[in-house]
Structure formats: C-alpha cells, structure tokens
C-alpha cells in the first residue's frame, strides 16, 4: 500500500512561468500523478517581513509578533511530509523572498518544534 504524502512547494520566482516556477509546476504535476497531495505557495504573492531577531519565537516560545503571511506558511511547512523550495539564484544566493521565509522559520531550531519541551 502506497502512503500519500503531503507535498508543499515553495516558489520564490519573481515571475509566474519563470524557470523556477515552471520547475515547481512540473514537480507538482509529478507528485499529484504519483498519488500525493500537493500545494504550491507563490512567495511573491505573500507578505513576509524579515526577521527582526526579537527571539519571541525561539527563546520565549510564543508566536512571532509580526503580522504577515509567514505564520500561515510555517503552519503549512509543519504539516507537510515533503517541502520543495525553488529559487532563482541572484548574486550566488537565494532570492530575498526565500531568504525571508527561511529566517522566519528559525523557530524550528528549538526543541519546541520537535515536540519536546526541554532544551
């Protein structure tokens, strides 16, 4: 029996239909054809503020105080079995949208995200 996986695809292409976005669409098509659930999030359409380093999430174990779309994306990341991230490479690094998403996901560095209450 094949188990269905929840696949989350994060596209940080600045253009719909750009190279990275096209790769996301093809990966999504293959995932669905293989019997998995797949969802694509187009980061360009989301508001994700940069991390301010306030440590509310990591040290105080509380939700980030910023009011944007990052919490929704992080919830989807936690619920996913597979996370695919696609980004164009600018100046030898990922796009700003993807970098902001990574920074705001820093709560995963803490044991709370792993289901443990101790450090």
TrEMBL record:
Protein name: Iron-sulfur flavoprotein MJ1083 domain protein
Key words of the record: Flavoprotein, FMN
Residue ranges crossing the lipid bilayer per the database entry: none
Species of origin: Bacteroides intestinalis
GO molecular function, one term: oxidoreductase activity
Residues annotated as signal peptide: none
NADPH-dependent FMN reductase-like domain ranges (all copies): 6-100
Organism placement in taxonomy: Bacteria, Pseudomonadati, Bacteroidota, Bacteroidia, Bacteroidales
Top-rank taxon: Bacteria
